[in-house]
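Need a sequence for this fold. Nothing fancy.
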């Protein structure tokens, strides 16, 4: 298997994403890989909380928060001398990650992992499993919070 040359990191500023950021930086340095950082304004979950309505002000606030998270991740990467490029997407997280993985031809995806409670596991399938299914042929690395 050839070594990965392009890593796509999903980053939302959460503690799990920060752990994934540190691991992605380590991987990029060790592999000499280019890093892409993706922040997603998750319109699906944001709108479902707001009864399928998202005001311009609320949308702007969410977008601003994700832009701040993206800048934080890019600053971290460039601080370690890693060539990194930022991307902003709008939609669901899994759709956005799988779409960008294809567009960027990423070899490896790095995402934070949050342990779900019993009810969440009972109600629905695994987001990580769906991502693996949609991104066949790419390595998917999930990182738990340090």
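Here you go.
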């Amino acid at each position: 298997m050839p070594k990965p040359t392009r890593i796509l990191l999903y980053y939302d500023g959460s503690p799990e994403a920060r752990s994934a950021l540190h691991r992605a930086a380590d991987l990029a340095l060790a592999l000499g890989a280019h890093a892409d950082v993706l922040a997603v304004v998750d319109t699906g979950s944001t709108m479902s909380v707001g009864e399928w309505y998202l005001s311009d002000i609320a949308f702007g606030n969410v977008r601003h928060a994700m832009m701040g998270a993206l800048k934080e991740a890019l600053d971290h990467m460039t601080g370690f001398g890693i060539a990194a490029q930022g991307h902003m997407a709008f939609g669901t997280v899994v759709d956005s990650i799988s779409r960008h993985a294809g567009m960027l031809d990423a070899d490896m995806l790095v995402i934070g992992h949050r342990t779900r409670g019993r009810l969440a596991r009972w109600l629905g399938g695994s987001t990580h499993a769906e991502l693996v299914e949609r991104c066949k042929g790419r390595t998917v690395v999930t990182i738990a919070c340090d």
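For context: The longest strand covers residues 34-42.
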